[in-house]
Design goal:
Pfam families: Methyltransf_25 (PF13649). The chain is an alpha/beta fold. Helix content is 29%, strand content 34%.
Amino acid sequence: MNRALENCLRIYEDANFYDEEFRNRQFDISFFVETAQQIGSPVLELGCGSGRIGIPIANASIEIDGIDISQPMINNGRLQARESACNNMQFHLGNFSNFDLNKSYKLIFCATNAFQHLWDDEQISSCFESVRRNLAPTGIFLIDIFNPDSNKLLRTWEQVYVFKEMNTREHGTLVVSARSEFDPTNQILRFQLDYRRKLDDAQIKVKDIEMKCLFPDDISQFCTKHGFKIIEKYGNYDRTPMTPNSPKQIIFCTPH
């Protein structure tokens, strides 16, 4: 197994902690639900995790499949789908850089930077090829990644800053500090999140994460290389047009 996949498995092995960390994140869900409703069933989510986005789509009467490499996340997703009486979502354990579900999807999407777990051109190309095999001829491939911020890429490992606070059932309020560094040769952003209890500064968890920085020209080149044309670009979930200073790259592309 390559280092990128090993990194993913480490990040998401504690699925319960991950779900608790993001249980209140709601601001992006309506974007994906509305998009799925506009395009229609069936839908496939790459890197679906435990269904934070997929289950609301399913509950909007859309038939959706999800694929993820993390067995703990898949297990949590199946449990949460059962608990919410969600019958329209199926979870599949697998690597979304190389998959074939023998189905023709109207929409395939990869949300909230999950696409950036693919570190090298070969993995990214394999993902595009897999999408093309599983996408309807007039289907849409939606990629949602962050837009690299040059100021953030200049940070050094010694610069530690408070990233956020989060509330947990077991540990109370946690203060999350971060540090990062950018490898321009490989376009990899490495960052570390340090979770400490606010009450006594006890360390609860450390996450070491590495993600591929894809610039707008990179995405355009991959689309062209694999026979996709970009039809829409948004800079955030409110569907504002993408600009160089947008926080997000939300790309809609289709085969041609």
